Amino acid sequence: MTQIDFPQYQSLVRTVSIGKQLPDAVYIHKSAIGQVPEELAVLALQMAKTFKIPVNKWNIVKFSKRSFKITFLNYPRFEEYAYPELQHSYTVDLQRLSVRKANYSKSDNPPILHRKETFVSDDYPHYTLFKEITNEGEKAGLYAKTRNIGFKKNWERLINTKGCFLDDAGRLHKKEVLAEAASSVEISASEIERHKTAIDRNKLSSPMQILARHGYFDGNHSVLDYGCGKGDDVRELEAHGINVAGWDPIHNPDGDLAKSDIVNLGFVINVIENINERKETLKKAFSYAKKMLVASVMVAGESVIRQFTPYKDGVITSRNTFQRYYTQSEFKEYLEDSLGQSAIAVGQGIFLIFKDKLEEQHFLFERQHIRRNWKQITEREARTQTKQVTKDLIDKHKELFSDFWETTLDLGRIPANSEFEFSERIRSIAGSHKKAFDALKDYFGEETYQSAQEARRNDLLVYFALGQFARRKPYGKMPDDMKRDIKTFFNSYTNAIEESTKLLFSVGNPQVIEAKATNAYKSHPVGEFVEGHSWVIPKKLLDDLPPELRVYVGCACQLYGDLDDIHLVKIHFTSGKVSLMKYDDFKKQEPLLIQRIKIKLRQLDIDFFDYSDEYPPPPLENKQLFIVRGKRLT
Ligand SMILES: C[S@@+](CC[C@H](N)C(=O)[O-])C[C@H]1O[C@@H](n2cnc3c(N)ncnc32)[C@H](O)[C@@H]1O
Q1: pTM for the whole thing?
Q2: CA of residue 228 to ligand 1 center, whole Å
Q3: Do the Cβ atoms of 71 and 89 come closer than 8 Å?
Q4: Quick one: pLDDT at residue 309?
Q5: Integer CA distances (angstroms), 516 to 353, 511, 512, 552, in order
Q6: For the chain, which end, N or C, has fewer CB atoms within 10 Å of the first or last residue's CB respectively?
Q7: Domain range for 392
């Protein structure tokens, strides 16, 4: 149906000299469509007709420069409102000959237009007025940085922080009194309203949720919420029977300041404007921790920070509170310098600092320990060659022996007496763990056990390799179960380190990454594999990857934290990068990408990119690639 192909289309778009030019596209008002090359104008109008896009339902046309697509956009208030909102868009895919409609009419934060004069030609009736509006905004400094102004809410927030407001036609006016106050008065510490930083929570804060996911609220750990604000986390944990106390200098100064296994310092550091007090608070909170401190701050980039008034090393928000926004690596460094301990990233702006180093090793290893589902294997038909006496004994105490076998498979070795809850019982029946193990190996077969051994050995190798990547000092003491692991799988600690060093070094070689990914893709053909470039996989597939790829992604995660809220992971083969993708709702037909995190391993740098501002969230168009045999992996 289309007369031209993509390269012809691209070269035509390149010749367009009117409209708003952006790197990815050119936008033109309907009134100026006659001024683009005729073939392009005809193509656009033909598409609008073919796909039955009503003439009164679009007034701006977007020609994409990088894809073979034309979008028809409808801004109903284009004429009368200074910054009109997008109501509908129709994107025509010229390759597939399909159309996708997006409806923003119910959105409270739709995309908006600025600089309307750029979309029309200079003989357009309101051209001069449009220019005037733009000059107005420029004078007020609204275009100083444009990354964040594409959506209604950010735009209005920016206008507010500039001490202005918009009238019914969207024209800009100064809020005289406020503006004067903001510019002439020096902010003093006494004016900062720290108490306002505490918010009402109706679910556990993210640091507490992370602790819950790692099993720390099993009732065996006491918790102190230091700087607990209004105490919603404390109330929730109390309701679950956790031994928890909360203290806050403003909201709960009489709270119980008791030494506790875990201390939470949740979003406190970032509200303290005094740099000395900030450090003292951190150290004090750590002094109350018997096992670990979880410390969190707000993480934000330039685009957020510049919306506020600078103050000391942070900013003053519109609510007159202080905020010291950090980057992920800046906060890690701050914690490590202040406390002299390594800080382990578990989330965005959330770190654990362990006082109990055995617990730290346990935590780090558990992160690498993949709990595999051996269950269906234990339910397998017994082998016929099993000796009668053993089979009878196992059948008689099926549940007990199954439990023992699962523990054995999970460890990849015979559990020590202290590692199996019903050790005494099984020993009284089978004589010893060894005898129970021999019988079960015979009962279920050698292969399952061999896979379990290999899996556990790999978990350990990954753990040691990541410890070296983090330059963690060798621990003075090691948990007993890890000593047993080392003895069983490596014979000595030196061997374990030697082997994991080799593994870590191999990961620096792009050819190894590509070869391992290619092989893994052959056995798990899931995700988007681009030869010589990258592999995008659902997060759950990470557990099935070879140790080299687990270490590669694991190194990246040391900068980011847990991948709980991540859906897809992109392994770049040659550039030493890992990207993490977070979607709005992965159950949707076409989930929208809301955050992309790029981790550059060579530079040890991490970039958070939020879609929602000037760059609308792109949909995941090939979701079917991330689904295996009808089962969603993410
Ligand atoms: C953003 S709120 C966080 C509250 C709570 N942790 C939460 O996550 O919901 C910051 C809290 O830090 C408290 N705070 C301020 N200065 C503090 C200090 N020097 N020591 C302990 N807490 C402090 C404030 O009173 C406020 O309740």
Answers
A1: 0.68
A2: 6
A3: yes
A4: 86
A5: 34, 8, 6, 11
A6: N
A7: 370-493
